[in-house]
Design brief:
Blueprint (H helix, E strand, L loop, with lengths): L6 H23 L10 H12 L3 H25 L3 E3 L4 H20 L3 H21 L10 H15 L6 H28 L5 H21 L4 E3 L1
Antiparallel strand pairs: 1-2
Length: 226
């Protein structure tokens, strides 16, 4: 049950969901039509490629998976805790994500797997970071859990049970943000190609700067266990 979430979590979750939506749609419309923000489909495709003896496709898919896991591992090294707390290195993590997305653009334009790998690493870092500071309550790079929670809320409401309104609104916010990012990315990609990723890179970096400024303004803060 979410008893309280500070403003910077709401705004950060929305911004990062938009980022993930843009990155994912660019990956889908561009390089090998691969989603880069989540691994369920990627793992299924890897299994199919291995079964069909497609070594090149298998290698590319495995690189995507390892890059995502590597980004999550980097986030774990930076954040180190599951307690929501101003002062942790979210700004550093967001800055690294922005750099990874920016550097992925020229590699994508050369149709190199390294571009997709950097984008996947950025998404792994982002997803692990949000899961870390919220005790896995907020994951902004894929929506399966969000839609599952909405279904559970609906079932509870139909049974007349209490519903966690903050959690419900948070799920809705993330879903809408991801969808908005997908729409923006799909509209920009035909005109700017992979350079569309500069926009989520700027948005990620700006979110990191905003977090740093909010942290400085608030000063030392307490914790909010997830």
């Amino acid at each position: 049950m979410i008893s309280r979430l500070p403003t910077w979590v709401w705004s950060g979750a929305a911004s990062l969901a938009v980022v993930a939506g843009m990155v994912n749609v660019v990956g889908y419309l561009g390089f090998e039509h691969q989603a880069v923000t989540h691994l369920t489909g990627t793992t299924s495709l890897l299994g199919a490629s291995i079964a069909q003896g497609q070594s090149r496709a298998s290698f590319h898919l495995l690189v995507m998976i390892l890059a995502f896991v590597g980004g999550a591992a980097l986030s774990g090294m930076l954040i180190q805790d599951s307690t929501l707390r101003l002062g942790r290195r979210y700004g550093v993590a967001l800055a690294i994500e922005a750099v990874l997305l920016a550097f992925s653009v020229p590699l994508f334009e050369r149709q190199q797997i390294a571009g997709a790998a950097l984008a996947a690493m950025a998404c792994g870092l982002q997803n692990a970071m949000t899961a870390t500071y919220s005790g896995a309550l907020v994951r902004t790079s894929h929506l399966t859990g969000m839609f599952t929670d909405l279904g559970v809320f609906l079932g509870h409401r139909l049974r007349g049970m209490a519903v966690d309104q903050r959690r419900l609104w948070l799920c809705t916010l993330i879903i809408c943000g991801f969808l908005l990012g997908g729409v923006i990315g799909a509209l920009l990609f035909p005109h700017y190609g992979y350079r569309t990723l500069y926009l989520p890179a700027v948005l990620t970096g700006s979110t990191g700067i905003a977090y740093f400024g909010y942290r400085m303004w608030r000063g030392p803060a307490g914790t909010l266990s997830s």
